[in-house]
Amino acid sequence: MNIERLKARIALFRTNFFKFLLFNLFMRYYWLEWMLPFHVVNLVLGASTWIFFGKSFQEASPIYQQYGGDFVSFLILGLMLNSLYAYTLDAFRVATLFILRGRVGSMGQQLSMYDYLKLSGIPFSAPLLAFVVNGYIEELISIFIYFCAGLLFGLRIGGGNYPVALLGVLVGLLAVAGIGLISASMITIVGAWKGVEPISWLVKVLTGLVSGVYFPLEVLPEQLQAISRVLPQTYAMRIARLALLQGFGLSELWADFAALTFIASILFPLGVALYRYSIDLVRVKTLVE
Description:
By secondary structure, the chain is mainly α. Helices cover 77% and strands 3% of the residues. It has 9 helices and 2 strands; from the N terminus they run ααββααααααα. It has a two-stranded antiparallel sheet with strand order 1-2. Strand 1 and strand 2 form a beta hairpin. Helix 2 runs antiparallel to helix 6. The chain is globular and about 65 Å long. The chain starts with a helix and ends with a helix.
């Protein structure tokens, strides 16, 4: 592929990416108008329930001392990151289903979204990434709501190491995105069109139990702690908490960073490869039909 053709493809992607993004943002207005107030209440009440539950069982347990002895900050950070990573697990699968099963048309004539993209010469990646990025806007709102709720209950992260925490969150996001791409590829590879997709379901179930979202890993039996070590969320949450609540730097967290980076270096390329293969299967099936 020569330079001019590459530039043309990039320009085509950029133009259509922003078109789809603006369309999705316009549709997001209805979510902001009708659903956001209920979303705020759900998140605040959910966080409050966990906070009061923890306080009723003496959150000042010595097991929280390694995280600064602050149960509220420990929990709020876990809820914020779990929300972000849970969305990332499903984002590519939901966006792919939208493209492959969605319909466009007028005057009684309908065309699948995928066929529309092919006939229009629009890169598949443009609406896919626009849909995913748009969803992160809702997630940022959710994270902000958790943050505000945390402030009401005494969240304290003022003296943390923000660059290290952010780096850990981003590397974790890359690893979880790899799992999300693997999950999305199962739509066409194994025919997971309906209901629950097993990979993302299993990871989300295990994350809530063994990744330290609601309580420290040290309370778990050793067998469950062993399972937690294969999930990127475990390391990302530990890095973020220790960096923000204890001010730890890279030197103290190098082991967690090494493990998280290793997992991300495997999962993300594997996810991209499987996802590209799954889309190639769609193209082949379309040509055959």
